[in-house]
Design a protein that fits this description.
By secondary structure, the chain is mainly α. The chain contains four helices and no strands. The protein has one domain.
């Protein structure tokens, strides 16, 4: 029975002929520079035309900058309004007279003296 126990715990594939462990795959060698093939759809010609157009437009940027400056000058901004001045003088003379008049009219109301 001792032999059976050893066979149960024995791992298969541990012979010298079978390799095991971590396999490290080697990376492919970088390809040497290849000449770009012309596009089948003509995109390379379209890209070249756009590059040429951008170069021509870069010469005209000076003119566009002056147009931008003119546009800035003609902007319409809201005119600044005058701020409301702070009035620290209290109430007006008319309001002061009304308050004094009211106090005088009602000052004697409720004061009764027995004689």
């Amino acid at each position: 029975m001792a032999d059976e126990d050893e066979s149960v715990h024995r791992l298969e594939g541990t012979s010298e002929a079978t390799k095991g462990g971590l396999f490290v795959m080697k990376k492919d060698k970088p390809k040497e520079f290849e000449f770009a093939k012309p596009s089948l759809l003509g995109l390379d010609k379209l890209a070249e035309a756009k590059r040429k157009q951008n170069r021509l437009m870069s010469f005209n940027q000076d003119d566009q900058e002056t147009d931008d400056e003119l546009a800035r000058k003609h902007r319409k901004y809201r005119k600044p309004n005058e701020e409301t001045p702070t009035y620290t003088g209290g109430i007006s003379e008319q309001a002061r007279e009304r308050i004094i008049d009211r106090l005088q009219r009602y000052s004697n109301v409720g004061n009764f003296q027995n004689k």
